[in-house]
Amino acid sequence: MTQQPYLSVRNLSKHFKPAAFSRGPVVKALQDISFDIPRGQVVGLVGESGSGKTTIGRSVLRLIEPTSGEIMLDGVDITTLSGDQLRRQRRKMQYIFQDPFASLSPRMTIGQVLTEGLDIQGIGTRAERRARAEKGAGRGGTAGRRLRPIRP
Questions:
Q1: φ, ψ for residue 68 (rounded to 5)?
Q2: Count of domains for the chain
Q3: Predicted structure pTM score
Q4: Are 100 and 82 in contact (CB under 8 A)?
């Protein structure tokens, strides 16, 4: 029995129209992108500057609206959601910006950085957030270590 992917993206496209009063062409930033991510997997998207990495991430989270395509998150088509329903689904996803200097604050410990999103969303107690961050850090190659108050 094959388990359904946690995230399934099919035929995702994003076209940007020229600004008002501009004569430039439509920019086809994404064209017919499809991929699956299994439950429990962490995926990094790597590519050259301008290749569409940020546009894919922002489209999947629906921070920008895709031109076309289907985005299934845990069996739910999030391209049809809005308002509170979309916000509830976004809590299941995490976008990490590609610029570490913009996303990592030197005033925060690694533990604080890893738990910040959970804290903002009101997920779990402080101890539960810390445990989840330690588990996630273990997936990133720091298994067996506790999150000490180390500054990035």
A1: -160, 170
A2: 2
A3: 0.66
A4: no
